[in-house]
Structures are given as C-alpha cells and as structure tokens.
Amino acid sequence: MTAREKISVRLDPEIVGLGRRLAKVDFGSEQKFGMLIEHAIKSYNARQIKSTDVEGILSETESALINRLESRFDEMSKRTIERMAGLLFTNTFDTVKQSLLVEQLHKVGVKNAVQLQTEAYKQTTDIVSKRYKEFGDSLLFQQKSQIYDLTKQLEEMTTKYTKAHKQWALWEKSTTETRAELETSQTRNKQLEQRIQQLESTVARQQLEMNHVRKWSRKLVKRIESSGLMDRPKKLLEAHIEESGAL
C-alpha cells in the first residue's frame, strides 16, 4: 500500500467546517478530512469523463473488431477457394488418369473392359466423394471454430461496453448526488447564518430594551426617594414619564 503524502492547503473556514461535517457523516470521524478530499477529487475526475468519450473509444474498438471479423472471413473464403481449386485439380487429374488407364486396357483387348471401366468410374466417384466430404467437414469445423472464437470476442467487447456505460452512469449519479448534497448544505448554512443574525439582532434589541428599562426604573426610584411625603405617587410617575418618556 502506497504511503500517504502529507500536504498543506489553505481553505475557507466555512468550507473546512462543511468538510469536517461531511467527513463525520460519510467516514465516521471529522479527523478523516483527507479521505473526504480524496473522494471529492476522484468524483471530480470521474465527472470529466463524458458519455461521448466513452462511446467514441468503445465505438472505435468495436469497429476494429468488425474489420477484423471481415478480414478473417475474407481470408477464410480465399483459402476455401484455393483449397477447392487444388482439390478439383487433383480429382480431375485422378479421373483423367483412370479414364486413360481404362481406355488403354480396352485398346489392348482386355476382357470385360466395359465392366472394368464401370468399376473404375465407380471407384473414382467414391474417391472424389470421400475427399469432398472430408474436405467439407474439416472446413466446416474450422469455420465454426473461428466463428465461435470471434463471437466470444464480440460478446466480451459488448460486456465491457455495457460495464463502462454502467460505471459512467454510477459516476454521473454519484457526482450529481454529491453536488446536490453540497448545494443543500450550502443552502442550509446560509439559512442558519440568517437565523443566527436574526437571533443576534433580537438579542441586541432586547438588551437595549432591558438597559433602557433599568435606567428608566433607577431614575424613577431615585425620584421617589428624593420626593417628600406629601408628593403623590401618581404625580411622581407622571412627572417621570414627562421627563424620561414612557416605556
């Protein structure tokens, strides 16, 4: 296993916080921030692979295989014609040789020459038929074997093609989901920031109000303490409100 390389990068604090939360959710610990970065880089790299690129590469490979099939079939056809021509020449030669032999025997007066010629013809026919059958069976077996091999290659290429498409679909889905999660997290962060700002504003306003109430109350208490026994509380409160305002 290759040793991990330690590097130092500068990130926005908001991104660092988001990254640690994602690392804890996906990998179980905020300390596995590096694994999250590796996953993000791999997902980004996978997203760069376009469907057209994959199809282009596999299409070229498939075309090369089809050309190879056509070349093999052309070669097989050419070889078949050559072997059939050679066999035809050999059989013709044997037939002519047998015919000449029978004619010569007939000329020299061999008894039963007609019967001998008939038997020679039958023998020649049997030889030719046997050779054609052996040749046809052998050629058919070779062709079937080659076709089977090429068909297997085509099936393997189709399997690889399908697998590549599935992998690309998974990569695209993973990238889309990751992007959606990131956008959702960013939206939630913005909403949380807005809520925090609202709460901070509310707290600040309430603090001001409380300070105002304390100050207003202290002045009222001071006014009451400095007033005489004959001063009515209502009059004191009205005078205080007129001077300091109402709450």
Explain how this protein is built.
By secondary structure, the protein is mainly α. It has 2 domains: 13-198; 206-244. The protein contains 5 helices and no strands. The chain has helices at residues 13-27, 33-47, 51-107, 113-226, 233-244. Helix 2 (33-47) packs across helix 4 (113-226). The radius of gyration is 50 Å and the shape is rod-shaped. The mean pLDDT is 71. Residues 175-209 form a coiled coil. Keywords: Coiled coil.
List keywords for this structure.
247 residues; mainly alpha; 5 helices; 86% helix; rod-shaped; coiled coil
Poorly predicted residue ranges? none
Helix content: over 70%
The number of distinct helices, counting runs of at least 4 residues, comes to 5
Kindly state the number of beta strands: 0
Going by helix content, strand content and strand pairing, the class is mainly alpha
Shape: rod-shaped
* Rg calculated over all Cα atoms: 50 Å
What's the N-to-C terminus distance?
Answer: 73 Å
Main sheet properties: none
- Tally of separate domains: 2
Strand portion, in percent?
Answer: under 5%
Q: What's the order of the H and E elements?
A: HHHHH
- The whole-number mean of residue pLDDT values reads 71
Quick take:
With 247 residues, the chain is an all-alpha fold. 86% of the residues lie in helices and 0% in strands.
